[in-house]
Amino acid sequence: QVQPVESGGGLVQAGGSLRLSCVASGRGFSRNAVGWFRRAPGKEREFVAAMAWTGGTTYRDSVKGRFTISRDNNKNTVYLQMNDLKIEDTAAYYCNVGGGLVSGGYYPNSRSWGQGTQVTVSS
Question: HSE-up of 49 (CA within 13 Å, CB side)?
Answer without folding.
Answer: 21
